[in-house]
Amino acid sequence: MRILLATAGVLVLAGSAAAAPPEAHTLRKSATGPIAAIAQDGSSIAWLSSSTKTCDAVHVLSPGTPDQVFPQSASSMTCHWDLTDGKPQLAIAAKTSLALWTLHESGPAPFDDVLTAPFGGQENQVDRFAHASDGTGDWLEGVAGSGRILAYSWADDEYVNKLDCLSGGSCKREIADGGIRVVTLTGPRALPHAHPALQLAASAGRIAYIPATRAPADRPAASTGGPIYVVDGVSGDQVNKLAVRGVPAAIALSPNVLAVLTQRGQHDRIVWFSPSGTKLNSVPVSAQTAPQLAASDQLIVFRVRHNLYGVSTANGHIRLLGKVGQNPVGLTLGKSQLVWAENPGPGGRLRALLTG
Description:
This protein is mainly beta. The protein has a single domain, classed as YVTN repeat-like/Quinoprotein amine dehydrogenase (Methylamine Dehydrogenase, Chain H, 7 Propeller), CATH 2.130.10.10. The chain is about 5% helix and about 50% strand. It contains two helices and 28 strands. It has helices at about 1-15, 160-165; strands spanning about 25-30, 35-40, 45-50, 55-60, 70, 90-95, 100-105, 110-120, 125-130, 135-145, 150-160, 175-185, 185-190, 195-205, 205-210, 225-230, 240-245, 245-255, 260-265, 270-275, 280-285, 295, 300-305, 305-310, 320-325, 330-335, 335-340, 350-355. The strands form seven sheets. Strands 1-28-27-26 form a four-stranded antiparallel β-sheet, with no helix packed on it. Strands 2-3-4-5 form a four-stranded antiparallel β-sheet, with no helix packed on it. Strands 6-7-8-9 form a four-stranded antiparallel β-sheet, with no helix packed on it. The longest helix has 14 residues, at about 1-15. The chain is globular, with a radius of gyration of 20 Å. The two termini are about 35 Å apart. About 45% of the residues are buried.
């Protein structure tokens, strides 16, 4: 039944497009290897690319300036990292010219490193999160950047009573610790009052996040009907606490819109709110919607398989925006430009679509 509903949802969405979608164009090509992560803040766009010939590197494209590439040392941690081991993340804060990215290492004791660098500068490792093969321990979760805000989140998954579990009793787990850390030129610091957090979004000096509230058998997770927090990105003071139905799976934040993708069994939805916390509208979407959103004040973008759709925040109308190619990576919206990456072969390309 879920498959039938998902298919029907895609057909309804496709039928809502009254005109041919605009054409996407290629901003940059990565000839030496695929693109592993992307980010956008205002008019600045960044991507993390791998290379078998030179170094893995972060690239920043900003209008009116030459492309910046970093880190600049072949001895850096990033240079020869295997970016196919896990999913690296990337965020930028354009007003401070800082980038943040993550590197994952699998194995019996998996870990994630958090690194930062000024645009064009040398990298600095600021954090490491490690967990055991059974999933207990610290998990790196989300990253976000906007303006002067650059942040990452984490959650600690632990047994309620490890000795009881080892002796054949209950192996129930809980979220024991976690939070959000913001990064400045002087390094990271804990964001006051923040709960253990999963996915983050940032805009206009605020951070929105999905709290980690339960610990199933694999890793920290959100709860059905769990809240979404919106906090000040400097003080951590709560701006809003919003209730949603279903399991919050993805969020996106713009100056005047908070969008949430909720998974509700056979009926996934996108719901959006005003800065004051007022629910503005919601629309049903396919159960095959990727757990990733991008948003501006006018448009919420989501992906179903290889199709990109836009939801008007004014009236809830859904239209087909375009299609993505093979192995798509990321989805970000800024300055009326939707950006993602595609990796059709040994190289990658950064794609963009004007959304009006």
